[in-house]
Amino acid sequence: MKRFNHKIVILGVLITSFLSSCKDSFLELSPYTQVPNEVAVSTEADLLVALRGTYAQLRSANLFGRTIPVIGDLGADNVFLSSRNSGRYFAFDQYVITTANADYEGYWNNAYTAILRANNIIDAKLTENANVNQIKGEAYAIRALLYFNLVRSFSKSGELASEGVPIVLHYDPTLKPKRNTVQEVYTQIQSDLDKAYTSMTEYTGSARFSKFAARALAAKVSFYQGDYDKALTYSTEVINSSGFTLVTADKVAAYWASPASNTSTVKTETLFEVSADATLNVGTDELGYIYNQAGYGDLLANEELYKLYSDTDVRKKLITIGSRAQAENPAYIVNKYQNVAGDRDDKKVLRLSEVYLIAAESAARTNKETDALKYLNALIAQRDPGFVYASTGATLIEDIITERRKELAFEGDRFFDLNRLKRDIVRVGGKYQIRNVPYTSNFRIGPIPQTERNANPNISQNPGY
């Protein structure tokens, strides 16, 4: 549920678009590409409207609205495409992705559009005060989130010297950038998150970034870099100092059934989510619509995943056993997204449960097993009450990875986790009952869209495309 007061404005649809002021004179301004940034964003009111437009871009169907979380589960081993489907995301189900893939192209273009909007907020020449710093801090966090997802999706993000994605920090319509290295992208992300953390002082709810949401993202980025010491430091800071609490076992079902985001007085579970409401949503392109049987219902859970949950695990109820007419019977139906009309489900991006799992795995990998078990069991006490882990060594790490899969299922992380771990993907279910996609496969990362390469001869393609 969105927490801004909305006004209608005209948006450009190209990467050079930008959302400016809502006052009447906005309609009389010269095109944004012909005026300096200090004219386009000259007041705090302009800056706030620009921030609204940046958050709105995250809602796009090819960003967090649907494509990013779909790739994260369909490309891995959590879900598969029903034999009776709407024709969406077939390429990710069957690994027949090309440089003309519309979903990856939309992802790339929408991400860089959002980055441009964040850049223009960050570069706005306004006198510093708490409001300006807060808005710019949110823009830094959004830019970091986008670059993190881009580098995970379009590069071998675990190989720091390999090619990442272009870093673009300022508006320049003539720019034709080369790809930066993965390490350079991570360095920029962490720099942005440091600035976000020190700039933000307000918590206005989970539909906007806040200080500790930025810290949670910094923990996740460090985790994916393999910097487990820093990941542990950041994650425990969020756990101990943010004031957020885990959603308890008795409220898990209600948490997922509700489409509302946290208000400024609530700090339960969700640190940041991309919001949608009854008016501002992407309709049948929403994530919930492709899972819910009242929508397309295309994506089904694998039986293997369902069997990982014990009968006393409250998360097991987020998958129901049913059937699809003229298709799968039984069908393991995902019940995490229940609101496909009216106020739509928000897309969870950063949850405290994941922060506990980051702390647990990071502690285990830095020989702090007592701490690892403490964080792991704190979460499990609210998911499978009565069960307690007591494993050690490699078994403990495997237990944490399994719990990460169970907790974050259908939220878009499993594919990137398997890439982080450099493990093969063994896909069960669907038309091809078993399909092994080794870590060495070129298709474990997306192609640079051909349209981008046509426009920018300086950008290189990923191997195999």
Name the helicity range: 40-55%
Q: Output the helix-strand order.
A: HHHEHHHHHHHEHEHEEEHHHHEEH
Q: Uncertain runs with pLDDT below 50, 5 residues or more?
A: 1-36
Number of strands: 8
Largest sheet: 2 strands, antiparallel
Rounded average pLDDT: 91
CATH class: Mainly Alpha
Radius of gyration: 21 Å
Q: How many structurally independent domains?
A: 1
Distance between the termini: 40 Å
Per CATH, which architecture? Alpha Horseshoe
The CATH topology annotation reads as Serine Threonine Protein Phosphatase 5, Tetratricopeptide repeat
Helix-and-strand structural type: mainly alpha
Q: How many individual helices?
A: 17
Spatial strand arrangement across the major sheet: 1-3
Assess the beta-strand content as a share of residues.
5-15%
Shape: globular
Describe the structure.
With 465 residues, this protein is mainly alpha-helical. It has one domain: Serine Threonine Protein Phosphatase 5, Tetratricopeptide repeat. Helices cover 42% and strands 7% of the residues. The chain has 17 helices and eight strands. Strands 1-3 form a two-stranded antiparallel ribbon. It has a two-stranded antiparallel sheet with strand order 2-6. A hairpin with an 8-residue loop joins β4 and β5.
